[in-house]
Please model this.
Amino acid sequence: MAVGGLAVAPLFVVTYLTADDLTPPHQRTEASTWINTINNLGSAAGSSLAGLAVDRTTPTYGFLVSSVLLAATAALTSVRRGRAG
Model:
């Protein structure tokens, strides 16, 4: 978890800078708000799903579910990025 946590700060820096580059100046606050909203939604959903998985099975299964969701998110992001570029 610590290794994964090391990526959080750089991820947010890149995300906010990208939002600043892609949006007009008068919409930057809204773009930052959407980043926070999506982060909070993803964290809540991920925590809920992992909690259900751990509660109903074993902690190992909870980590497995979290890993699969992370891989699916990364794949979806790659596909979306390919379409945008």
Summary: The CA atoms of residues 17 and 73 lie 21 Å apart. The chain has a mean pLDDT of 83. The two ends are 32 Å apart (CA to CA). The chain has one domain: 2-84.
